[in-house]
């Protein structure tokens, strides 16, 4: 299937004809766009979780046997060199990922037998899997990427890899052979979306095929080796029902969020890093009608909208000559010419805030976006600051009036100190009193203490509002009865709780 194979004899693999350069594997493989040919084993071999249980891999206390790692590396390096000499890797471009893995495994097993390497069955399986991951995937990261309970992967140089599980950051025993190997994996990832990372362009944002967010910062900016950060997305997209199950929001609060998504309210999702803003945005977009034309604008495409009529736009960094950059402002301005019914901005970071507010205020009801802020009031201040950063010489009152006329509701998400994520505020923007924006909380989350295990105890409560300002919009979409029922139920539960 790969073309010619060499014949092995004794303890030394034979050397066949010089393999042709590796062509880029097809999109179906996990390393669909390797940025450069593998020239020798040292470019791709890495040290993963060989022969260790999952708990040991994720346990900071699990010892790393340096001698065993060195022996494993030497064995793997010899086998990898023999593999490269014996197959034509360019033919990977014509094969499915699973078929290529089976072929590689067959040849590696043959090399192990002919070189008389003594290995247990489990050790051989670990080595086979590692080599397949190096050739077709992301090397030592593959076992971590395969786990759905890991939220973040943080690689600090070649010798340290941390993960976030259940809101807690833990050190793993996964590591790369050296800095060159780590950079090789980084190049594979970013080249999949047509980007590059090197000394000339040491900072890069990219994404994996499943939408997971990737950031790479390379030397000389990263002093101790490249830093790779992956924000993983779950294979099964979270829903509002699951957020209720995880106590991120109360059932009544979830019903209010469903209605906000349904009645085309302009929603701004605010929160700190890792608070679940993008996840919450995905949940709200689930209630967009299937006949609406939705256009998303993102730095790296992460949103997973399920509607059939979705156009996804992504920014582009400048090329080697410093030209060709497409900013978020360019995308938002262009999508206004594309007849959108809703505009979804993955994250508002700068002067594009002005363009988003303009869009919300000119017939694109139901538009949504996220930004970094620690409270609803701070989110409004940040919007004003970002518009000012764009060079607009507008009075503060004019900017605030624009914000008030554009934003209907701010939903605040937070990652608490115990690692849990909660929706802490559903706040509507009412209007202006003098030069001050008036807001009103509909739902808030109160922390009441913590249990013996250090987990925070709290409860979502209604503030007693029975007819928020968006009730009229709910009436227009025949959702007023559901809104009133949810708020009355929340208020009744609140009164019962106070009476105990």
UniProtKB/TrEMBL annotation:
Pfam families: T2SSE (PF00437). It comes from the Bacteria. Residues 1-51 are annotated as: Disordered. One of its GO terms (molecular function) is ATP hydrolysis activity. Residues 138-412 form the Bacterial type II secretion system protein E domain. Residues 29-39 have a biased composition (Low complexity). PANTHER family: TWITCHING MOTILITY PROTEIN PILT, TYPE II_IV SECRETION SYSTEM ATPASE. Belongs to the GSP E family. This is Conjugal transfer protein/MT3759.
